[in-house]
Structures are given as structure tokens and as C-alpha cells.
Design a protein that fits this description.
Layout (H helix, E strand, L loop, with lengths): L2 H13 L3 E5 L2 H4 L12 H5 L1 H4 L2 H6 L1 H15 L6 H13 L4 E3 L5 H10 L10 E2 L2 E8 L5 E3 L17 E5 L8 H13 L2 E5 L11 H7 L3 E6 L11 E4 L2 H9 L1
This protein binds ligand BJW and zinc ion (ZN).
Length: about 250
């Protein structure tokens, strides 16, 4: 990567009064979590565009729940990497909330807990726009539980009998309006939006960096390849998040 680009990126980080970061599956790739749309990504071998929809869940709940059970077991061996850690340290140090993620793997939260010790400032905890695969929720009421292994029969809500399902946002489902509101406000107020490891094609998350830019702020992208957002970014740093983020933020 060019020296000049690095200098400029570091200056943007140093001089920004408010920073927001939007992350996607790419930041967890180096932890061994498959991405969605790259070669070898989840989308290819498992057709999640068919599985990750409310229609699939209604039609064939067992298959969808088994797919998530497989995802959970694959995640069990994964740990946060240097990219998650660098972001956690950065926001802890600045004492401001700013981390927004599309990921459901919980690795940002684990990195924040590990970097901050016993009592992490709320600042470093991410807004998880698409939910968390480690939680279940009732399809019909507000009940939520830690995820449990799948048994012989479909899991049901003890309060209302509704289907117990992963607490994630499927295609065509709406995001939690409060979370989305908070993320939008962060993006609008930030003078720098750091966009890490996302193809930036899934809305409304993909619109957040544009909100920063629309309000006069900068976008700095970190990705191993160009994306839908590269054209409108002030800077695009090509490289792996686990290498680029510590160099940029520490
Ligand atoms: C690295 C790397 C390394 C690799 N270092 N980088 C407006 C316009 C058009 C359509 C819509 C719209 N508004 C809403 C829609 C419909 C839809 C949508 O956006 N569709 C588009 C695909 C066109 N959106 C929705 O349905 C959302 N709901 C909603 O808006 O409700 C209201 C509404 C409904 C319908 C119509 C209109 C309004 C909900 C979206 C929920 C997304 N859910 C999923 C699954 C979550 C649960 C699960 O995990 O199973 O979320 S889909 C999947 O995509 C997952 C991800 O969070 C999300 C984003 O993917 P991400 O993170 O970008 O991953 P990849 O694989 O795409 O990219 C990885 C990147 O990393 C690549 O660029 C690599 O190069 C890079 N990389 N290694 C750095 N080491
Ligand atoms: Zn219920």
C-alpha cells in the first residue's frame, strides 16, 4: 500500500472528532468464520438466500434451525482476531460508542470483553444490526434465551408456544428500529466512517456510510478487494482487516 495513503488514513483517524465503524463478515474471516458472498462463502455451498428468509422458516423450520445449529457449532471454535481487538481498543480508548456490525457471530463483543477486562465500557460494545446467533427468540412474543442445542422436536416458547428461533434478522425482516436509529445517528454525526470487510450490498446497513458522507464526513474502507462503496470512499485500504486495523488504529 502507498505510503501517502497510509499517512492520509492515519491523519483522518487522528483528526476525526467522531468515528463510526461499520463491519461485515470480512472482519471475522481471519477468525475462520466463512463470509457470505466470497468464493467459498456461506452463500455458495448452503444457498442461504433460500435458508435465511422467513418464508423458508415457515415452510421448513427444521432445515433452517439445523443450518443455524451447524453455524453455531462452527463458531464455537472461533476466536476474535487482531482486527476485532484493534477496534475494541480504539473505541475503549476514545470512550465513545461507535461500533456497528452486521455480524451475528458475537466476536466484537468477545473482543471488547477481553480487551477491557471485567467491566468493559459500553462504548466498545457493538450495535449488532442483524442480531446474534448465540441467542434465540420467540417468533410470536418478545421472549429471548441463550441458544440451546436442537432436540428431536421443534423448540417452543414456554410462555406462548411460538417457535423458538435464532435471534437474527433474515432477508425481508425489519431491523430493530431503535438499534437502526442509533446506528443512523452515529453515522450522521461522525466525521469518519470506517467500513471494514463488507460487500456493502445489504440494506439498510449499506446506507450508513453514505449518511456519514452525506453529512460531509469521510469514508475509509478496509477490504481485500474493491466493493460497491470504493468509488465514494475518500480512501480504500486494500488488505486484511487483522493487519490493516492494528496498523491504522493503535
Ligand atoms: C475481507 C476479508 C479480510 C473478506 N479483511 N475484508 C433497498 C434496496 C434494495 C433492497 C433492499 C433495500 N432495503 C432493503 C432491501 C432488501 C434486503 C436487501 O438489502 N437486499 C439486497 C441484497 C439487495 N434487505 C433486507 O431484507 C433487510 N431488511 C429490511 O430492510 O427490511 C425492510 C424491507 C424489506 C424488504 C424490502 C424493503 C425493505 C434485512 C437484511 C438482513 C440480512 N441478513 C443476513 C443474514 C443474517 C443472519 C445470518 O447470519 O444467517 O445478514 S444476509 C447476510 O448479508 C448477513 C450479513 O450481515 C449481510 C451482509 O454481508 P457482509 O457482511 O457484507 O458479507 P459479504 O460476504 O457480502 O462480504 C464480505 C466482504 O469481506 C467482502 O467484500 C470481502 O472482500 C471482504 N473480506 N476477507 C477484510 N480478511
Ligand atoms: Zn413466545
Amino acid at each position: 500500500m502507498e505510503q501517502g495513503q497510509w499517512r492520509q488514513a492515519r491523519r483522518l483517524v487522528r483528526e476525526a472528532r467522531r468515528v463510526v465503524a461499520l463491519t461485515g463478515a470480512g472482519i471475522s474471516a481471519e477468525s475462520g468464520v466463512p463470509t457470505f458472498r466470497d468464493a467459498g462463502g456461506l452463500w455458495k455451498s448452503h444457498r442461504p438466500e433460500e435458508l435465511a428468509t422467513p418464508e423458508a422458516l415457515a415452510r421448513d423450520p427444521r432445515t433452517v434451525l439445523e443450518w443455524y445449529a451447524w453455524r453455531r457449532s462452527a463458531l464455537a471454535g472461533c476466536r476474535p482476531n487482531e482486527g476485532h481487538r484493534a477496534l475494541a481498543r480504539f473505541f475503549l480508548r476514545r470512550g465513545e460508542a461507535g461500533l456497528v456490525t452486521q455480524n451475528v457471530d458475537g466476536l466484537h463483543t468477545r473482543a471488547a470483553l477481553e480487551e477491557a477486562g471485567e467491566d468493559p465500557a459500553e462504548a466498545a460494545l457493538p450495535l449488532e444490526l442483524h442480531g446474534a446467533v448465540g441467542r434465540d427468540r420467540c417468533e410470536s412474543c418478545e421472549a429471548r434465551w441463550p441458544a440451546e442445542p436442537l432436540g428431536e422436536t421443534l423448540p417452543r416458547c414456554s410462555a406462548c408456544g411460538g417457535l423458538r428461533r435464532p435471534d437474527v434478522v433474515l432477508f425481508g425482516e425489519t431491523l430493530d428500529p431503535d438499534l437502526l436509529d442509533r446506528a443512523r445517528r452515529l453515522a450522521e454525526r461522525a466525521d469518519l466512517c470506517l467500513v471494514v470487510g463488507t460487500s456493502a450490498v445489504v440494506y439498510p446497513a449499506a446506507a450508513l456510510p453514505l449518511a456519514t458522507r452525506g453529512a460531509g464526513g469521510h469514508i475509509v474502507e478496509v477490504n481485500v478487494q474493491r466493493t460497491a462503496l470504493t468509488e465514494v470512499a475518500t480512501l480504500a485500504l486494500l488488505g486484511e482487516a487483522g493487519t490493516v486495523l492494528p496498523a491504522l488504529l493503535d
